[in-house]
Amino acid sequence: MRYLAVVLSAAAGVQAARQCSTTTGYTHRVLDARYDGPDVDKPGSDLATISVSLGSSTTPLYECVAQWPESWKGFHNVTEKLIWSDCIWTGAGSGADKSVAFAVDWNKKVVYLAHVFACSDREGTDGLATGTLPLSELDCDYTEEGSAYCIPKATSSGARPDLRISTVLAPTAPDANTASCSEISEQYQSWTLEKWHRQFVLTPGSFEPKAGTDTGPSFSLKSLGVNGVTFTCATTSAPVGPFQGECKSDVTKAAATFTFDPKLNILTVKQKWDCGDSAALETVGVGYMQGTCDRGFNSDVFTCSSEPVLIGTEAL
Q: Quick one: signal sequence residues (predicted)?
């Protein structure tokens, strides 16, 4: 697999939750990094694959993978937003986060990290922290097959460089019932995606779902930028991708739609907030979905699901 790998280790060790009243944030150590361009052994392939492994000093806790066309450089070609990707818990350790995501601006060689966690000092609430890491010094070369790759430049002794990334707690989200558009516009917008569900028929020997059988995705979204806003989302278009869908919420001021490209596994979410007399406030987020698809017993029907996924919006 072609990848950019980044291994991080929490300096304070694994906790059951994190404090949300801290002003110091959280520091992580980056142990390794790698970027690989399209695989020259696959004619027509234009995908760059990015992989991130987060953990303790010795044990990976989260594995993160993203793919996008190399020419996109980490940004969606239509919305021009960063593409966020989920980091999947390995099952080792207890973990300190509910969901973790990363994104890469390959033009600027910057890694973005965001994580959601239960607040140990605010029972029943979640915190969001974000951070960035410039990959300023890289050694880039070609594999024996001719594919491009980059890794962090080693120290003068040949050791891996001591790279660290710090995340800073985002301000507490305003309440949906009282928040003004001015308050919302100043808040970093993101969502936690849950209950991902998609089904299709895949006949033996085929690599593409049988025509007309793909249901498209359904899922729920919980806003991390406005407290108390939850969406229920379902595909509304015909069973031919890219899929279009609508998201409903009990908060009348909030509305959302989505597009899912099953070829690239790219999900685009657009949320609008009714600002009354002024223009609606729109927020766009893009995520690379890695839902696991399992075949039913003695069946050609595959059902896809996912753990909670964090989808960010702008650069941090």
A: 1-16
Backbone angles phi, psi at 72, to 5 degrees: -75, -25
Long-range (24+ apart) CB contacts under 8 A made by 55-58 are: 55/7, 55/8, 55/9, 55/90, 55/92, 55/93, 56/9, 56/10, 56/13, 56/14, 56/93, 57/9, 57/29, 57/31
Extended strands (E) in 161-224:
163-169, 191-201, 218-223
Are β-strands 47-55 and 7-10 bridged in parallel, bridged antiparallel, or unpaired?
parallel
Report yes or no: 3 and 9 within 8 Å, Cβ to Cβ.
no
Comparing C-alpha atoms, which of 2, 7, 8, 15 is closest to residue 49?
A: 2
What is the predicted pLDDT for the residue at 288? Answer: 95
CA dihedral 110, 3, 290, 204 (to 10 degrees): 160
Among 260, 205, 210, 204, smallest CA distance to 235 is for: 260
Per the listing, tokens 């729109």 go with: 282
What's residue 16's pLDDT? Answer: 45
Question: What residues contact 62, with CB distance under 8 A and at least 6 apart?
Answer: 52, 53, 54, 55, 87, 88, 89, 90, 95, 97, 100
Q: What is the mean pLDDT of each run of 10 residues along the chain (316 residues)?
A: 45 56 74 84 85 72 85 95 89 77 92 88 82 88 90 86 83 84 87 95 87 94 91 90 92 92 95 79 92 86 92 82
pLDDT of residue 74: 95
**Distance between CA 59 and CA 53 in Å, rounded?**
10
pLDDT of residue 95: 63
